[in-house]
Amino acid sequence: MSKAEDSSPGRYTLDVRGYTCPYPQYYTIKALHTLREGEALEVILDNHPSLGILQATATERGFRVVSIDEIQTNTWRIILAKDAQALVGTRGIS
Question: Which of 21, 30, 31, 94 has the highest count of CB atoms within 10 angstroms of its CB?
Fold first, then answer.
């Protein structure tokens, strides 16, 4: 899946497992630009090099990295927010 899906009000999930660089970054950037103030994007990925690149890219574009968790061996969840205050306390949400 490379399309962000609404997983709850104001929170979207983008599953880019199986994709290699540059596709996780491409799909994430595309999805981030659709977020409104107070919304978050949860990205699930299994490409370790993309993890660091996504953090840097999101920060450079004015988004906040709320959390990063390894949810399975070699699979990570990174939560990115347009408005950091809207997501206080979301660390570890499944």
Answer: 31
Sketch the domain layout of the chain as residue ranges: 5-87
Radius of gyration of the chain (CA): 12
Q: What CA–CA distance (Å, rounded) separates 62 from 64?
A: 7
| First-to-final CA distance of the chain | 18
Cα gap 51→78, rounded to integer Å: 8
Domain 5-87 belongs in CATH node 3.90.550.10: no
Question: For the residues of 15-38, what is the DSSP string, one character each?
Answer: E-TT--TTHHHHHHHHHHTTPPTT
The CA-atom distances, in angstroms, between 15 and each of 34, 85, 86, 88, 89 are: 16, 24, 22, 23, 22
